[in-house]
Design goal:
This protein is of the alpha+beta class. The protein has 3 helices and 12 strands. A 3-stranded antiparallel beta sheet has the order 3-9-8, with no helix packed on it. It has a 3-stranded antiparallel beta sheet with strand order 4-6-5, with no helix packed on it. A two-stranded antiparallel sheet has the order 1-2. Strand 11 and strand 12 form a beta hairpin.
């Protein structure tokens, strides 16, 4: 992807602007309808996660300039899919031109976040630590709501853990 004058990725319609969620966020210069592709993000692949990466499979993490500006929201406007070594952002709901921040639920993109945090989008802030945390804290309703947006390798990793847990003993 081409870069702007500051060395960040350049896009014809994605731009960085002030966020009501956290510092700066990602926005669109055009209205994007529900279900449409917002954009494709490429970047460097890393073996270890950090707070600026997205987990694209069990042991690989993508680092992209725009990822720094895709803020977390418990009710996000977009979700991600992985295509090879690229992240595809898809709109969950209509993203209004220049006013709707493009956000994702970090619990759907990481099994275990490199750095957990308290969300800034809810009245009662939620602890955001990754898909594994939701399972460990038995947040069934949350898991049910996000299941269709969680990356497939996260579901697979969760299933592997579930099937290796000891079965309760019956007396």
């Amino acid at each position: 992807m081409p870069q702007d004058d500051y060395g960040y990725e350049k896009s014809d319609w994605l731009f960085i602007g002030p966020s009501e969620i956290n510092g700066f966020g990602l926005f669109s210069r055009k209205t994007i309808s529900s279900g449409a592709i917002v954009g494709r993000l490429g970047g460097a692949i890393q073996r270890t996660p950090n707070k600026r990466t997205i987990q694209i499979d069990r042991d690989r993490h993508l680092c992209s300039d725009f990822i720094d500006f895709v803020n977390h929201n418990c009710r996000p406007s977009a979700y991600i899919r992985v295509e090879s070594e690229t992240i595809v952002l898809n709109a969950i709901s209509e993203i209004n031109r220049e006013t709707s921040e493009i956000s994702i639920d970090y619990n759907c993109s990481e099994y275990s976040l490199a750095e957990s945090f308290m969300c800034r989008c809810c009245r009662k802030a939620n602890h955001v630590a990754g898909y594994k945390y939701l399972i460990e804290t038995n947040q069934k309703e949350y898991l049910r709501r996000i299941r269709r947006f969680a990356l497939s390798h996260l579901l697979q990793m969760a299933e592997e853990v579930r099937t290796t847990l000891p079965k309760p003993q019956s007396h």
